[in-house]
């Protein structure tokens, strides 16, 4: 038997359910007894009773399950996370950096990275990513930008990257990793959308496989895992696994969900037993998807051979807003992952050969919905705005006030016309491209205001806690 077929934690939990035991332990639903219908699913929601091991001091089934995970990803240590990639990102920063450290950070990062920087009380140096000029979507950081950041901040202690981006776009991250290691910088990667990246078949290589030191993956995003299930992989040398585990014990719940952990064990086995035949099947299936989408006149399909094949980005040929297409699909019973003013993102299941019938059904439903897409959409996006990063600025920025100090400072709201010269009290993130225009602690300049006026005129969606829908900016008082 292939060792990756083993599921020690999943099997032990299943065996425990079969005992039909009487619960005198937490949680309070008592194996689902107190829920209407007495759900058998809830019988698996248990705690650290005899035979079920302990996530933070594993000696039995959890230890074996994590060893199998370590073997699959060829790490020094791989760990289960029950708090999603969020707790992994917080822990890799808190467990690697110390207060006052300078840290190089890819600017288009997840908010959990920002929260980790605040928690660790480090000084971030933000690096601008590159753009895909066909789509306007932000990608990864170029190695030359990293070199500039290291030249300007030679005492930096770590570099934090995001790979792939939300749309599944991958970049030559190996160049950045190799350069960082040449100057003894550990590389920490938020790889939330790459749990299925193990360098086989049509799928890209994981940043861990390419040399990164700590990698966090949201297994629940692309693998058959319950929500909040994630992996953390560690390569020892430039980082200390012990301090990262200590950070996890501090930041993650002391009552981990066995349902989530068992699903992580199952997902690892599911991926680990993906055969060559399964990879061939999926590659052919993906080609069918792309051919189908290209055949529909009302749809444009963004197809890049090097990106994550699980993700497909589409837009309407008419240029209609992506949210319009999302609402249309939802009316047909198809719920996309995400939409922005241009695009709709679809994430397909990681089917195996045995799922051929379900795979065919998925494609049929999508094709029928899109073939009936009405052609009377006449709105078009206005003329593309100048990229706000084309103002001749350096691609490396350091906030005037550290993030953790911003958190502790009183704030107030100002109108756009009054905000120049003040310090931003929050994040302002235009979508697209999804890169913060302003980070907490950065001084608001005239070109920021100019760009925000353009955003308003073009009805571009803005995220972040530093922006009010009435066009006010949060600043330090």
From TrEMBL:
Every Orn/Lys/Arg decarboxylase C-terminal domain range: 398-459
UniProt cross-references to Gene3D superfamilies, sorted A to Z: Molybdopterin biosynthesis moea protein, domain 2, Type I PLP-dependent aspartate aminotransferase-like (Major domain)
Cofactor: pyridoxal 5'-phosphate
Domain Orn/Lys/Arg decarboxylases family 1 pyridoxal-P attachment site: 8-278
Keywords: Aminotransferase, Decarboxylase, Lyase, Pyridoxal phosphate, Transferase
Superkingdom of origin: Bacteria
GO molecular function terms attached to this record: transaminase activity
Pfam families membership: OKR_DC_1, OKR_DC_1_C
PANTHER family linked: ARGININE DECARBOXYLASE, DECARBOXYLASE, PUTATIVE-RELATED
Record family assignment: Belongs to the Orn/Lys/Arg decarboxylase class-I family.
Record-given protein name: Aminotransferase class I/II-fold pyridoxal phosphate-dependent enzyme
Species of the source: Bacillus carboniphilus
